[in-house]
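Sequence, please.
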């Protein structure tokens, strides 16, 4: 670990954050970068009509408004607009604005009680409070927004399907995003056929809305993740620390530390940090390490932390074998976010 006397340079590996269930519940709001996310600020790509179509459907879902009536012929009735299900499920690749639209739903829906969190935050809440207490806390909520819905293991499958089923039956509306259609969750990751009944029961609560398009982050970038040499890194960390708080850690030490901290607490690891520094990045070949790093990257991206890094390029941090496996979309999303963060202004 580098010894630094500057109080504005911190080390993530020295932090051991704790989060109570009450704090988790209070934190179920959109990330700061989506504080101003509305349907009006969503920029649909005209090359992909499904984006504008999705926006129109979600506006109707959020406001409860009916679509404009369609005109029929002289003796024909206009086709009846299908009734929306209690949940909407935004399916599409990374970087097409799904989280923006999810936050727009949250902001547009006039509700007394509404929550917004990542899939891992909800499962962590259950882990902290217990299933029964979580149901009681969330029961009666008007809206539950779930970002990056993933079913990576059988336990999460059972917990989330039961939880959502109980909430829907009590009147809660659901909005979720994922890179995988709800009837395909779990494919290639565990014996999905053993949980087919639960998966399909959950998907029946959602109207799936497909959003096509290309990654907006890559449209705005050229090349690959930015890599600094040791001198550039030291100078950049010092410059960042002269104006804000920068973290400075060896990549391997961060990866090891993530194994000792529950993913629900990763956001607290980054609390108060303005610039994230990672020295001597290497390519990850262990699946558990890689998945923890993905969850960490998601929290860094939510906080919009510029990343300074040396060593292996962060857009090549996941091995080819991993990119060809069942978590391919997760890894590609993380790569997209890492690329953007290394090009963010750290000054």
């Amino acid at each position: 670990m580098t010894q630094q006397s500057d109080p504005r340079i911190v080390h993530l590996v020295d932090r051991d954050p704790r989060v109570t269930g009450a704090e988790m519940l209070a934190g179920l709001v959109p990330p700061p970068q989506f504080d101003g996310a509305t349907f009006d600020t969503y920029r649909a790509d005209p090359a992909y009509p499904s984006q504008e179509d999705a926006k129109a459907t979600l506006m109707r879902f959020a406001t409860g408004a009916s679509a404009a009536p369609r005109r029929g012929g002289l003796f024909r009735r206009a086709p009846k607009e299908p009734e929306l299900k209690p949940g909407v499920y935004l399916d599409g690749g990374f970087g097409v604005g799904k989280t923006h639209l999810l936050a727009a739903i949250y902001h547009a829906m006039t509700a007394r009680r509404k929550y917004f969190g990542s899939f891992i935050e909800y499962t962590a809440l259950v882990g902290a409070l217990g299933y029964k207490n979580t149901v009681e806390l969330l029961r009666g909520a008007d809206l539950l927004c779930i970002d990056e819905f993933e079913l990576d293991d059988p336990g999460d499958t059972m917990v989330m399907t039961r939880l959502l089923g109980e909430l829907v039956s009590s009147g809660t509306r659901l909005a979720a995003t994922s890179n995988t259609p709800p009837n395909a969750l779990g494919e290639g990751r565990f014996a999905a056929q053993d949980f087919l009944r639960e998966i399909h029961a959950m998907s029946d609560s959602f109207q799936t809305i497909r959003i096509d398009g290309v990654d907006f982050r890559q449209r705005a970038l050229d090349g690959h993740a930015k890599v600094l040499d040791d001198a550039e890194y030291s100078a950049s960390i010092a410059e960042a620390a002269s104006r804000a708080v920068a973290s400075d850690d060896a990549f391997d030490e961060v990866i090891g530390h993530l194994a000792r901290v529950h993913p629900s607490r990763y956001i607290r690891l980054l609390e108060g940090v303005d610039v994230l520094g990672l020295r001597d990045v290497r390519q990850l070949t262990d699946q558990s390490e890689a998945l923890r790093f993905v969850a960490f990257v998601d929290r860094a991206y939510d906080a919009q932390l510029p990343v300074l890094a040396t060593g292996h390029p962060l857009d090549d941090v996941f091995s080819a074998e991993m990119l060809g496996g069942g978590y391919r979309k997760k890894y590609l999303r993380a790569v997209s976010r890492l690329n953007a963060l290394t090009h963010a202004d750290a000054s």
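The first strand starts at residue 9 and ends at 10.
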